[in-house]
């Protein structure tokens, strides 16, 4: 996993939107694999702070651009690619107890868990943001 909450990866960031620099992200990932086997799976996951893990019109317009950025930076398109949305609702506080935190549950789209402040949902999508994938929660 690569942590992307670094200002060098953003062109513009406001409370309502974020414009990322996917070419920079993809190049940094490629550089991290220099001299190593290329990754066989890449997922571009971003956050929707509105509580819905559904792609926006902009998400759908930009969907395949991210995959192309990684293919260009890595010099190959020989990898599985997924889009993902991490959603949480800032208007609703969590009422969960400590014992209930971070216990994931499968949902019709994605999987959800409760944190100390909010309920989070992660949904994974195909490269075009057309079809959601089933997210399975596996307990030990």
UniProtKB/TrEMBL annotation:
<protein>
    <recommendedName>
        <fullName>JAB domain-containing protein</fullName>
    </recommendedName>
</protein>
């Amino acid at each position: 996993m690569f942590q992307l909450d670094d200002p060098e990866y953003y062109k513009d960031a406001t409370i309502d939107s974020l414009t990322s620099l996917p070419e920079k992200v993809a190049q940094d990932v490629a550089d991290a694999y220099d001299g190593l086997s290329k990754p066989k799976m890449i997922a571009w996951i971003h956050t929707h702070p509105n509580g819905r893990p559904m792609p926006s019109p902009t998400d759908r317009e930009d969907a395949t651009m991210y995959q192309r950025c990684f293919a260009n930076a890595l010099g190959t398109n020989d990898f599985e690619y997924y889009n993902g949305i991490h959603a949480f609702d800032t208007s609703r506080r969590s009422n969960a107890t400590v014992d209930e935190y971070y216990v994931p549950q499968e949902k019709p789209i994605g999987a959800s868990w409760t944190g100390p402040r909010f309920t989070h949902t992660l949904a994974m999508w195909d490269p075009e943001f057309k079809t959601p994938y089933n997210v399975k929660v596996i307990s030990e």
